[in-house]
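The following record pairs a protein chain with its ligand, flavin mononucleotide.
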Amino acid sequence: MVETDLYPIIFKRKSIRNYDLTSLDENTLKEISNHLQTLKPIYEDIKIELRIVSLYMVKRRIMKKAPHYIAVLSESKDGYLTNVGFMLQQMDLFFSERGIGCCWQGIPQPTKELLNSSNLEFVIFLAFGKPSEKLHRTDVSQFKRKSLKEITDIKDADDLLEPARLAPSATNSQPWFFTGDDKILHVYGVKPGFIKSLMIKKYIPIDVGIAIYHLKVAAEHFGKKVTIFFDEPAVKNLPKKSEYFGSLKME
Ligand SMILES: Cc1cc2nc3c(=O)[nH]c(=O)nc-3n(C[C@H](O)[C@H](O)[C@H](O)COP(=O)(O)O)c2cc1C
């Protein structure tokens, strides 16, 4: 099966927070459910469950409602949050390409019923449904993001790095930094100060996983084969106040 090139979607996607609350039709939900089975992990050995649930499984607090949610439950071991970011962002771009709205939801919590239905750890929700606002941005200037200069010291690889720059992140914190070149690229997450770390620590590895996925989509768009690996020298040559997450080899 030929995979859809999601590269163009990266330049127009956005979080959707207003939904038509009627349920999507059965065929569409079946297609989404089938697509969930095709998502690629970074780490094959981490057990993960991505489940379509309805609103009543979500303790919403102050959030706006959506008709459906994907609940992510995962085994909790090294790299699991980055793995979740990498996998669930595949759904974010898939939805946006199919005309369906979605939004990562870090604040809402699962009901006891949902928690007790699995022995894996609950990680996060992705809300989705028919949007009742504009689905896409029409220009890159509509993204509120750091400049490339602030997130990388790599020159001459803008086509590859721009998609990582545009990636979504919790509270739009964009906690990433990239070194290397267009053949081997190292990915770091910003190490937050004490106070910030209490609030956003869980999200940084997820955000970095999202950015890694955007880099992979970009590299594949330009005809490269991507391998994600752990590079010992990159662990030692940390940029200031950062943490190493992984590297991409692009051939
Ligand atoms: C891990 C994660 C958690 C998020 N949690 C929430 C949330 O609880 N509520 C919300 O409205 N948006 C949430 N967002 C969406 C971000 O606020 C949004 O991606 C960011 O502001 C960039 O905007 P954009 O997605 O429209 O490009 C989350 C995003 C990520 C990646």
